[in-house]
Amino acid sequence: MRAEIVSIGTEIMFGEITDTNASYIAGQLPQYGIDLLWVTQVGDNPARLTEALKRALDRSDYIFTTGGLGPTEDDITREMVGAAMGEELFVDPEQEALLRANFARRGIDPMPPRNIKQAMRIPSARVLENPRGTAPGWWVERDGKVIVVMPGPPAETHHMWETLVAPELERRADAILVSRTLKTVGLGEAALDEALTSVLSGTNPSIGTYARADGVALRLAAKAKTREEAQALIAPVEAEIRRLIPGAIWGVDDDSMSAGVGRMLREQGLTLGLMESASGGAIASAITDVDGSSDYFRGGIVSYATEVKTMYGVPAETIATHGLYSRETAEAMAKAARVALKSDLGLGLTGIAGNEPLEGQPAGTMHLALADADNVEYMTFRFLQGREQTKRRAVQQALILLRKYLIERAAKGTH
Amino acid sequence: MRAEIVSIGTEIMFGEITDTNASYIAGQLPQYGIDLLWVTQVGDNPARLTEALKRALDRSDYIFTTGGLGPTEDDITREMVGAAMGEELFVDPEQEALLRANFARRGIDPMPPRNIKQAMRIPSARVLENPRGTAPGWWVERDGKVIVVMPGPPAETHHMWETLVAPELERRADAILVSRTLKTVGLGEAALDEALTSVLSGTNPSIGTYARADGVALRLAAKAKTREEAQALIAPVEAEIRRLIPGAIWGVDDDSMSAGVGRMLREQGLTLGLMESASGGAIASAITDVDGSSDYFRGGIVSYATEVKTMYGVPAETIATHGLYSRETAEAMAKAARVALKSDLGLGLTGIAGNEPLEGQPAGTMHLALADADNVEYMTFRFLQGREQTKRRAVQQALILLRKYLIERAAKGTH
Fold first, then answer.
1. What is the CATH number of the domain that holds B245?
2. Is B144 found in the same domain as B13?
3. Partner residue facing B281 (CB), from A37, A41, A288
4. Which chain B residue is nearest to residue A29, measuring alpha carbons?
5. Between B7 and which of A31, B29, B41, B399 could a Cys-Cys bridge form, CB atoms 3.0 to 4.6 Å apart?
6. In which domain, by residue range, is A215 found?
7. Minimum Cα–Cα distance from A356: chain B residue
8. Given pLDDT bands bounded at 50, 70 and 90, which one contains residue B141?
9. Does the complex come out with an ipTM higher than 0.90?
10. Distant-in-sequence, close-in-space partners of A67: CB < 8 Å, separation ≥ 6
11. Are B325 and B351 part of one and the same domain?
12. Closest-CA distance of chain A to residue B385, Å
């Protein structure tokens, strides 16, 4: 099956929004055995939209459109899909009733007349409910071609996809491809290949290794008649991999590093406190992006002003002797964080997030330390690509330091 | 002039990356009077890429491509642009020397043989240097058509655009459209229309009003032969607007709310300290995304554990009497932040970022307070769309509260 996405909206043509719906849909299609060959973005222009839809009908089996379902005159997707299919639009009485009820519920009664457009469909369209907005979608099917018409706002599109479109594609698929990603750290691609020789030759699931910013990922992909069968093929292979590389897997699928670190903190019964300056609260924010982080995260001090560091336990002499941006100050911050937040582990970060060198050190220099009751680990790095990127990298390095500590601690069996 | 963007890469078709280059370029084109009519995304596939390029050459004057300039066999953009133009590729000796020197500088000597591809061009292509990567771009021009061939990584594309492509487009433009956005708050669209009647009828610059999440934006757009002339048309109108709505403008163009709040804090000579729990450091992080924020930001306490709140000045009785998620606790946190961070203003936030109700309050409930030496302002809101979105909204509300306070303070002339 060949698919094409047509993303519709003049605001895309002006660069006012980035079309994230296309990449969302693109990422979903492989599991149903559908090949995405084209994405076309086009404004709310009758001639060009018609051209795009006609071409898509010529060369693709499935066409997914997003956008252009609003109530204004600019919103012409319904009309143009109707024209491309050679069908007339009519008001669907059931949809009209739902739409009027929707407006009444929101205290808008009577419904603005122009919204009646949103209750229209063509004969070969089945309505896709949109509980997150006023514009329902369409599942249009005729002569072996399918056009799935969805709204533009990503929250509405995702919901419609998950609840109505994906299940239908799954019912129609000859085979389902399920993939599961195991995220590892501490072993390079070559070492992983060696450790996993006995399973790597399998074909269902196939196993691929990919070097990523957060470590090497193993992707297991299995094909079967149903999702359950595919998952059942993956499970024993995953178990065997976990046996072969104990402790190296820190997360699965979309797990963020902060989720992986959080899981290990919880498993090891440890709490964490922070004292961060250059990262300005971004480390704390990443850690608290994880549900249940209050189980292990005590809190943090964002010690932006130097005085805040000394008020909360960094000796003024350390800063005076070694400088604000130094190994010694980072280590003192890590130790102070443990005390100030009454946590098992303390993480300290100091550095230069701005674009100017300070204290004779280049912009982007960061000093990081992690303290437990007995020891302090330290690392430094330099990264400069603007303040926000530099902060993001600081968060990543902090999580890497934590993850390394927790994996080593688990391997030692300290807990 | 009609333009088309062709974004190239199989990873786009698998949804592994979102094509942000297209929206970046789309946002740049209007100022040169170039109309973007089409964006096509296509994989690294010879037949489909050729089809896309031929169609683009048929219907557009300018074609901007990104991606497919790497050294591997998959990277076929150069070859396909050559084929679409009917020209042969050859190794440009000057580019070869540069490329070899680039590799030698990075300690890779000799250069891997396959990279020689990146030194190739066609006769009608002029090379666009790429100091951020190994793949130079091309400016291809013949028979009234222009193809601008750029690499895929956004950092490389943006740099090439800013340094080489944009200046060339500006030289060729008959007129330059410069726009400037003034970000306002406190006045609705109707009130703004009334206050600005005397300037709104102007046509160069034209003035549009747009309701945005962070307030009503005024967009001034002027057209002139040169950028300088266009800017000179905007300046007096902007000055008049600032005179007509004193204090209502909190930022310009891409200013974030945290930048706007930061500017007001600096102007009013005030410092800020935070105590945040549900937002988990995200408010501090937003404030420190701004260059120079150390001028006014003292720091923050991320009081995730309840004990951290009481350790740093929130009376245990307040929490016991009113609950963790309450107006009283938020106000106590704001006051405690002022003391704990020795700041002029203290901001406190407590609430429920997770998906479960707590203390009889629905998930997503937030309590926010802002304290100065004399008073405490309070607001509450509820927003639930997953933890990360809820945190982001909490940051926005905190900045709104701060902005409102600072605008009112400026209007009163307290500083």
1. 3.30.70.2860
2. yes
3. A288
4. B14
5. B41
6. 176-252
7. B291
8. very high
9. no
10. A7, A8, A9, A12, A21, A77, A151, A152
11. yes
12. 10
Any CB–CB contact under 8 A between A177 and chain B? no
Length of chain A equals 415
Q: Choosing among A7, A35, A295, A304, which should be mutated to test the B contact, i.e. which has the most B CBs within 10 A?
A: A304
Q: Does A293 touch chain B (CB under 8 A)?
A: yes
β-strands A206-212, A176-184 pairing: unpaired
pLDDT of residue B325: 96
Q: Tell whether the model's pLDDT for residue A414 goes beyond 60.
A: no
The mean pLDDT of A57-77, rounded to a whole number, is 94
Which chain A residue has its CA at the smallest distance from B341's CA? A308
Nearest-10 crossing angle of helices A257-267, A387-412: 30
Q: How many domains does chain B have?
A: 3
A96 and A168 together in one domain = yes
Contact B26 A15 (CB under 8 A): yes
pLDDT in tens, B299-351: 999 999 999 999 999 999 999 999 999 999 999 999 999 999 999 999 999 99
Give the integer Cα–Cα distance in Å for B78 and B75. 8
Of A267-281, B3-17, B382-396, the range with the highest mean pLDDT is A267-281
- Chain B, 242-271: which have a CB under 8 Å from a chain A CB? none
**Considering only B148-157, B163-172, B355-364, B406-415, which range has the smallest mean pLDDT?**
B406-415
B43 contacts on A by Cβ (under 8 Å): 37
For residues A295 and A2, give the distance between their C-alpha atoms in angstroms, rounded to a whole number.
47
Let me know whether B266 and B180 are in one domain. Answer: no
Q: Please state whether the peptide bond connecting residue B46 to the residue before it is cis, i.e. omega within 30 degrees of 0.
A: no
Q: Which residue has 């956008």 as its token pair?
A: A67
Which residue type occupies B176?
A: I
C-alpha B40/C-alpha A41 separation (Å) is 6
Same domain, B76 and B180: no
Q: Is the pLDDT of residue B285 over 60?
A: yes
